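Class, study these two lines:
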Amino acid sequence: MGTGRTADRSRRTLLRFAGTALGAAAASRMGMERARAAAYPDHPIRIIVPFAPAGPTDIMARILASSLGEALNGTVVVENRPGAGGNIGIGIAARAEPDGYTLLVTSSAFVVNPALYSKIPYDPVTDFAQIAELGTSPNVILANPNAGLNSIAEVVARAKANPRELNYASPGIGTTPHLAGELLKIVAGVEIAHVPFSGAGPAIQALLAGTTQLAVAALPPAHPHIAAGALRALAMTGANRWFDLPDVPTMVELGYADFISDTFQGFLAPVRTPPAIVELLSAKSVEILKTPKISEQLRNNGFEVIANGPDGMRRRIETEVPKWRDIIAKAGIKPV
């Protein structure tokens, strides 16, 4: 009996020791994380943009990076890593060291690509820590002024009279502008050739050069060209007209019910990035977006500011991954 009681006491002592050791290890890790967060950043932070320069994601990232560097008393640089509809840059961010020094600003492609590609280099739910839901933009259907297309009705009429004579540029396969262009073809019953590019910047340059007659793009990169008269906006794909483009109708107003398509921008970090750093980045970025100066700058560039923290970004991912999977299946687009 004495031997049994001694063994029990030994086991209890061992368990208490193990628990104390585990608790000490956890406290040590937390202490190290807090210390790292307190010293953060001690060298430049890079924000990966998985698209070419001058597109909406690039515009958002650069506006955010400038103010975020000031808020953190550090340096924040934007690195464009375009290709494969955003998969290359997103994959690089997913595999980066989770230390807070490689971050990702991405678009709706993040939630569309899982249904569009048979294999992608990331999991949108498990590979990233959500920092913030930044903003959203309506897409806009554009024409080169020399194409002689002044309205969606004229586009549809010409496309029906001359199938596949017209073409449209998009920022890439599977982007929400591409899907909006395909939706136009479906609801109007027309054939218009799709010409994908590696981002909104190159797509708009092709339209300006007359390489394509039409383009579908998020509003931010198109807005200055519309304002200057270099491009003609035929329709918006948001729920409402844009505040400083009051003469541009929505697709819903033109009789295409439920034709609403926008492009969101989100801020993420590789999973296992220290929570204290994620919380700091979230608080600073939301604070930046809500300042009147930045909010007005973004609105003038075609963004509706959302400025939600991690929970808002998480909800968007959980909602939009299945949403776009369903839309892509209904559109008959096969994964590549």
In short: Residues 91 and 261 are 25 Å apart (CA to CA).
